[in-house]
Design goal:
Strand order of the largest sheet: 1-2
Helix content: over 70%
Oligomer: single chain
CATH class: Mainly Alpha
CATH architecture: Up-down Bundle
Number of strands: 2
CATH topology: Growth Hormone, Chain: A
Number of helices: 20
Shape: globular
């Protein structure tokens, strides 16, 4: 990681730099979180606008899914590569490039007049989002190396990630019914331009290792193709035209590509993904928990939005506003309560508590009836999800990042973001497929259309609860007690030393 606040003078004493450093550092954190918020928002803001987009641009029902899928494929496929590029050429360069591409792609989506143009714009948004998002976590760690400050900064980032999806549903409903779906994308343009200007001023560029130190081109091709094909294989299973044989062939090819990538990383001198990062049990287990957590969390939001619209009859505006309790409580938990609980009990305890709340929410929603009430059947699960994800997501991210060496900050950030996006893609695709299959079976057995839909969503909620239960078991048995508190001082010390020495031989200041 390389991006920090702009220093005053290299030889100035601590008392003279303190007052100016803190505001600049907070502004830099705000820029990073704004970009992350835009990325998360664009993953969900179009969800409630899809029927309107389908009508305006003439999408088929199967083709409409690619408004979401084209974004996910580009995003998930490029995250690891983007994180490594950040290590090699500098995080600031990669972040600004990604922010610029994302902003330009948002403009393209906003002015799209055909389905092809919108899908192309969404793909480019995924490219820009991957470039920027892959280096954000490492940059935050660089801005806040001290453990106590890092907990608070990660709380802000965690709220951005946890609350962003719910906020996206709210904004999507409001924007679609007031100024039109185009503004779901156009709103990113002025925000993106301002963010680019602030990033250029607030984030300090430091040289990376150089492309010659680790540009594994073949490895990049293998992992990008493998991850992209894997996500494509998952999301296309929800299409009515999906065939079992074709799906199996795609899955086998994607596994072979990823296996080839792993073999190459084990043998190449300068690997794109140093496999030693997986030797740390905390990093591996925490990222697995992140996959399961995001699979369930995004699945909850997707299925709850459908339940509100297609079972309770909410329009897009009411659906968006209905999610308001989740981000409010998520903000309170992530920004105020969570950091204090982590400092006192450790990240593992807070993670398990948050997962428990999410599990309860999913089980409650699985029992929501056809003639349900928003106040009786939906508000309580939303509050549980807001508090649960507000606690679990920052804790899981901190546990995933804490085991990485300083020189692997970009790699660890890209790996964690890949886990998030893979979880979101898997959760949405698997749960949507289960819901559609169950609904079809119920319809053939004579159930009413609304009753069949409700039964399909219930099965999906139960499946999502299985994801969370697996995360609880994995976290409780494989994550060490107090691991976060024991390890927090070591990386911070290493980063502090590295920032002072800037030794060319030390890998901790790359990218």
């Amino acid at each position: 990681m390389t991006s920090t606040i702009e220093p005053t003078t290299s030889g100035s004493a601590a008392p003279s730099t303190g007052p100016s450093v803190q505001p600049s550092r907070a502004k830099a954190l705000a820029v990073l979180c704004v970009m992350q918020l835009m990325i998360i928002l664009d993953g969900t803001v179009v969800t409630v606008a899809l029927p309107t987009i389908q009508s305006d641009l003439g999408f088929s029902q199967a083709g409409l899914a690619w408004v979401m899928n084209s974004y996910l494929i580009a995003f998930a496929g490029l995250l690891l590569l983007a994180g490594r590029i950040g290590d090699l050429i500098g995080s600031k360069r990669v972040f600004v490039a990604g922010l610029t591409v994302f902003t330009a792609a948002s403009l393209l989506c906003g002015v799209a007049t055909s389905s092809e143009v919108l899908i192309a714009g969404r793909f480019l948004q995924g490219v820009g989002g991957a470039l920027a998002s892959a280096v954000i976590l490492g940059m935050i760690v660089g801005l806040y190396p001290a453990p106590a400050e890092q907990v608070r900064a990660m709380g802000v980032y965690g709220f951005t990630s946890a609350g962003g999806a719910s906020i996206g549903l709210i904004l999507g409903g409001v924007i679609t019914q007031t100024v039109g779906w185009h503004w779901s994308f156009l709103i990113n343009v002025p925000i993106g331009v301002v963010s680019v200007l602030l990033a250029l001023r607030l984030l300090k560029a430091q040289p990376g290792l150089g492309l010659g130190k680790g540009a594994d081109v073949l490895g990049a091709v293998l992992v990008t193709a493998g991850l992209s094909l894997s996500v494509y294989t998952i999301v296309q299973t929800a299409e009515p035209t999906a065939e079992l044989l074709r799906t199996i062939v795609l899955a086998v090819v994607s596994v072979l590509l990823l296996a080839g990538f792993v073999l190459r990383q084990a043998r190449v001198t300068q690997p794109l993904l140093s496999l030693h990062i997986f030797r740390n049990r905390q990093v591996t287990v925490a990222n697995l928990v992140v996959v399961l957590l995001f699979a369930a969390g995004f699945g909850f939001q997707f299925m709850t939005a459908l339940y509100l619209q297609r079972v309770l009859g909410f329009d897009s505006l009411r659906t968006g506003l209905a999610f308001l309790p989740a981000p409010i409580l998520g903000a309170v938990m992530s920004l105020f309560i969570g950091p204090r609980l982590i400092a006192r009990f450790g990240g593992r305890a807070l993670l398990l508590a948050g997962l428990g709340a999410l599990l309860a929410a999913l089980l409650l929603m699985s029992q929501a009836p056809v003639d349900g009430s928003y106040l009786v059947n939906v508000v309580a699960p939303l509050l549980l999800v807001g508090g649960g994800t507000g606690a679990a997501i920052p804790a899981a991210i901190m546990l995933a990042m804490s085991g990485a060496e300083p020189g692997d900050a970009g790699l660890a950030s890209g790996l964690n973001n890949t886990a998030q996006q893979a979880g979101a893609a898997v959760g949405t695709a698997v749960l949507a497929t289960l819901a559609a299959s169950r609904t079809a079976v119920q319809a053939t057995e004579g159930a009413s259309p609304v009753g069949a839909l409700r039964d399909g969503y219930s099965v999906a909620f139960v499946a999502a609860s299985a994801f969370v239960l697996a995360a609880i078991v994995v976290g409780a048995t494989l994550l060490r007690r107090g691991a976060r508190r024991r390890r927090s001082s070591s990386p911070a010390s290493a980063r502090t030393t590295a920032s002072g020495s800037r030794s060319a031989a030390h890998p901790s200041r790359r990218g």
